[in-house]
Design a protein that fits this description.
It is a single chain. The protein is of the alpha/beta class. It has 8 helices and 8 strands, in the order ααβββαβαββαβαβαα. β6, α5 and β7 (199-204) form a beta-alpha-beta unit. The protein is globular and about 40 Å long.
Length: 260
Amino acid sequence: MLCALLAGLVLSGCTNAPAASADEEEAFAAPREIAVEQPQEAAQPPKKDILVAIDPGHQSWEVDMSATEPNAPGSTVMKARATTGTVGRFSGIYEYALNLDISLRLKELLEQQGYGVLLTRETNDTAISNAERAQMANAAGADIYVRIHANGSEDAGASGALALVPSAENAYVGQLSEQSASLAGHILRAYCSATGFADLGIQVNDTMTGINWSQCPVMILEMGFMTNQHDDLAMAEDSFRQIMAEGIAEGIDTYFEEAS
């Protein structure tokens, strides 16, 4: 009798056990998929229908560019295809290496703003002449041709930045003089404002092969004097080089803003 009673109690307890709560059921349910929000890519600037050709001046001294080429289309004046350039008197840095570094930074900045960019060289051992660089820009249909250089002088006190453009009397590219001067002015002002370098102004020069072969507004930016301690050591600093490139990019941007 006692056994039967115990059996009944056990069966009754099983039958009347409280049902699991909703929270308990959920705890033992299959794990749910949780939607993870994917990071969105940074908005890309609209592409500009503008191609900027950048020429990092010179190349390594190990590349023989001593052969000659015409100073301009059809000219009988022959000049060396290219030269090595100067070297930092205090930093020991070669101009050709500085020019390329600034040009690569400038390319990145301009592309971030939607410009198309052409570099005439991307390594220091590229064997390409001054005329060939301009012809490359011409063939690509560049809207402007910006040549990146640094200066040197026997006067260690010479300091600051300047720009070179063709004159209106240039027999080959005189028609580009006004636009080239406008381009040079925008770049030089923005560059000197960014870097704090002295603005030595715009000078005309009709002897530059790379200018005389151009078919679009062209200018040379002489970024500073590598023979001057202040300029040379400043241009050797990585953070300052970025400022240099940003100044040039700003000048290019304001040139096209004014032209639009």
